[in-house]
Design brief:
Blueprint: E1 9-14, E2 25-32, E3 35-41, H1 49-64, E4 67-70, E5 73-75, H2 83-94, E6 108-111, E7 116-122, E8 127-132, H3 139-154, E9 157-159, E10 163-165, H4 173-180, H5 186-198
Helix pairs in contact: 1-2, 3-5
Length: 209
């Protein structure tokens, strides 16, 4: 008799993992006594597949500040879901190879279009203020764009034109670092998510090697 694992509801999918034999990897959401938790899972039985899942888990902990709750489950320290943010985090984690160095991303980026360095500075109650290193013409527009991009990518509350806020009321610096680098190009990121969602489904064990 096969072993059944209650892995929860799938919320995101990488149909072909470029770093490990093109296996399919899914991110699942579970509700339990610990609140909302997440599981990275593959049905592949290829040797080393579990090590690949472990590497994605590690990347999500480092890049997104998630906690390991045991039994392969992850959660945010605040206990909230942060659904769009965790989807983005999962995709970014899967872009890293098993031997890649993983570190928290900075809260300042170079906005290539304007040449400005744009920063997200933590405030109180889970808010971040978006600033630029110059007030030259066009800076305000880029600040608004980045703030809006963060709000869309991470499903954050936009507070005015230059602040965003996590609804849990806690700061998530690592998670903001992941979102910030993509925020100036939010339209292309959303297209990527749509394309990923439209490719394939998570195959059953009998359909994978």
């Amino acid at each position: 008799m096969g072993q059944t694992l209650d892995i929860g509801r799938r919320i995101e999918l990488v149909p072909m993992d470029n770093h490990f034999h093109d296996i399919t990897i899914g991110l699942y959401r579970q509700e339990n006594a610990q609140g909302t938790t997440f599981r990275v899972h593959t049905y592949s039985q290829i040797d080393g597949a579990q090590a690949r899942i472990d590497s994605v888990n590690h990347a999500m902990r480092v890049l997104g500040g998630m906690e390991d709750t045991g039994e392969g489950l992850l959660r945010f320290p605040c206990g909230a879901t942060h659904l769009l943010s965790v989807k983005r985090l999962f995709i970014e984690a899967c872009k890293l190879g098993m031997n890649d160095d993983v570190s928290m991303r900075p809260l300042t980026i170079l906005d290539k279009k304007s040449g400005l360095h744009i920063s997200a500075t933590p405030q109180s109650d889970g808010a971040y203020k978006i600033t630029a290193d110059s007030d030259e013409k066009g800076a305000d527009r880029r600040i608004r764009l980045v703030a809006g991009g963060l709000a869309k990518l991470g499903e954050l509350e936009q507070v005015g034109e230059d602040q965003v806020r996590f609804d849990c009321g806690m700061t998530h610096d690592p998670l903001i670092g992941v979102l910030l680098v993509r925020a100036p190009n939010v339209r292309s990121v959303l297209r990527e998510l749509e394309q990923t969602a439209s490719r394939g489904v998570l195959a059953a064990p009998s359909a994978q090697n």
